[in-house]
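Step 1: inspect the first sequence and its C-alpha cells.
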Amino acid sequence: MTTGPARGGGADDLVEKHVAELDALLHGPSRAKSRLVEEARDGLTETVAAYTGEGEPYERAVHRAVAEFGSARELAASFQRELTIAQARHTARAIALSAPFLLACWFLVQSTGAPQTSAVPRAAQLLATHLATVAGAAVLLAAAALATTGVLARRLPVPHRLPLTVAWTGTTASVS
C-alpha cells in the first residue's frame, strides 16, 4: 500500500469522511464489507500519492482524488452488489451445511424408537416426509446458489433475484 506524507488534518479528514460515508451506506457481511472499505481507502490514498508525486499540492490532490472516485453513493451501488453476493454465498453455505445435518437427525429419530407400527399418526409421518423433501430441495438450491455465486460470478452476470431466492431457500429450510 502506498501512502502519502502525513499532512494537515483537513485533507486527511476528507478522505476518512468519504470512506466513513461509504462504510455507512454499505450492508453485508462484516469481513467482506471491511475489505471493500479498506480497498477504497487504499485506492484513495494511492491516488492522492500519485497526484502529489506529479507535483500537485496535497490538499488539491485529495479533493481531486475524491472527485475522481465518485460520490459515496455511486461507489456504494457497485460495492453493494459484491456484498449482496457475499451474503447470498454465506446464507447458501449455512443452508448447505445445516440442512443435511437436520435430515440425518430426522432419519435417526425416525429409525430409532418404536417399530413402524408406532403411535405416531400417519399424517405426522407424511408431513415429516414432505418437510424432509423440502429441506433436501433447499440443500440443492443452496448448492446451486454457491455454484452461481462462486468462480462463475466473475464471468457471468448475477441473476437479479438470486439474493431473494437464497433468502427464501433459507427460510424454507428453517421452517422445515
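Step 2: inspect the second sequence and its C-alpha cells, then contrast the two.
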Amino acid sequence: MIGRKYTDLRHGRTSAETFRPVVERWRGGNYIPIVVEGNIASGKSTLLSELKLIDSVEIMEEPVKLWRNLAGGNLMGLMYEDSKRWGYLFQSYVLLTMMDLHHKQVEAPVAVLERSVYSARYCFVKHPARE
C-alpha cells in the first residue's frame, strides 16, 4: 500500500526500514552515492524525507533556493515565464549548482542525491540549447 510513506509491498516496511540494511552493509571506503530521479511531483521529496530518518545517510537536495534567489532575482521564475529567453541560462545555472553539490564533502557512508548532474546536462541543458 502506497500512502504518505513509501512502503515495500513485499515486506510491509517503509522505505527507511528497507534501505537501512544497505547502509549497515557498508564497509568503509568512499561513500555510496544513490541518485533519485523523477518528474516534478513524482514523490522524490517524499522519499528523501523518509530517508532523512536514517542517521548514516546524507541527503543532498536540489538547491532550488539558489535558483529562486540569484543576486536577488528569481531565475527559475523567469524561466517559467519565458523559457525561450531564460531556459538555457537557467539550465546552465542548474548544471553549475548541481556540480557544486556533487563535489560537496560527504561525511555519511551513503549520500542520496536528488537528481544527478547528468539529468541536468542531458535532459535540460541540451534541449533548451537546441531550441
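Step 3: confirm your contrast with the notes below.
The chain has one domain: 7-130. The helical segments are 15-24, 44-51, 64-68, 75-81, 83-102, 117-130.
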